Amino acid sequence: MGSWIRGRTIGRGSTASVSIATDAQSGDVFAAKSAKLSKSEFLQREQRILSSLNCPQIVGYIGHDETTEQGQTLYNLFMEYVPGGTLTELVQKQGGSIKESEIRAHTREILRGLSYLHSRGIAHCDIKGRNVLIGADGAAKIADFGCAKWNYENCDGMAMSGTPAFMAPEVAREEEQGIKADVWAVGCTVIEMITGHPPWPELEDPISAIYKIGFSDEVPKIPSSISEELKDFLGKCLRRDGKERLTVDQLLKHSFLVDSTSKNSPTSVLDQDFWDSFEEEEEMERASSSRDGENSSVSERMRQVSCLRAPIWDCEENG
Fold first, then answer.
1. For 4-80, which CATH class?
2. Residue 217 catalytic?
3. Ranges of Basic and acidic residues compositional bias (predicted)?
4. Is 33 annotated as a binding residue?
C-alpha cells in the first residue's frame, strides 16, 4: 500500500478503530481498521483470512501496513468501503420487514458468499444482518471476518465466538463451531429480514439466549405470514442437529431461491449505522470461552463476552 490519508473515525472498539481513508495518489476511498501493533494479533489474523478471499459477495481486501502516529506504531488493515448500509438498517428503514423478493435476493447472495468460504474451508462464525453490507447496486456483501476460522481449528479448547441470538445449538453448548453453524445463522438472518429483529426476541439477555438455544429442544419461531416455500427453507436451516441441516450449496437449489428469477434490489442507504454501532454493544456481542468441563457455566461464559479478538466493526445484539 502506498501513501494514504486517514480521515474521520467511523467506528471504535476497545483496541481497534475504523477510519475513512483516501489513497494519496488515486483519491480512492477505503476503510482502514487499525490497532496498536502490540495488540494487533487479532487484526493480523483477520488479515490472513480476508487476504485469501476474492468473491463479489464478500467485502474486498485491499492491503495492510504499519504506521507510526502520535508516537504509536499501528497495524492497519485496508478493506473495501461499501457505500450502502447494513442489511439490518435496510430492514429497519423499510418498517421492520422487507418483501420476499428482496429476502430471496439477499439470501441468495449471502449463500453464494458462504459457498465460496466453505469451499475454502472457512466458517464465518458471525452471520447476521449487521455483518451484511448493501452495495451501491443493492447487492449484499458479507463483512467482518474477526470471528472467522478455518475448519481445522475446531478442536478441544478452541474458543467459541459470535452473537448469542444467532448462535447454533452446538455453538451455545461449546461443542463445535463450523460451516453448519453458518447455515443456522442464515436462517436466523432470514427471520431478521422478515420480522425486523433477531430470533428469540422474548429473551432479554444473552445468558438466557445461550441457555435456551443450547439446552432446550426449541427452534426460533417461524413467522406464519410467509410463503410455504420460505417456511420450508427456514426449516431446512434451523434444525437443531447440525448434521440434518442442508449445506449452503443445497440451499441454493431450494425452490424458494430458484422459483423466481426476478430480483428487486433495495435502495442503497448510508452506512453510518454500521460504523456507529461498532462501539455501542461490543462487550455484549461476542461470546467466547475455553471449555473447562463442569466448572464452566453459562454465566461465566457471558462474563467473558468477547471474540478471539476484542474489537469488531459492528456490535448489535438486541436488534
1. alpha beta
2. no
3. 285-294
4. yes
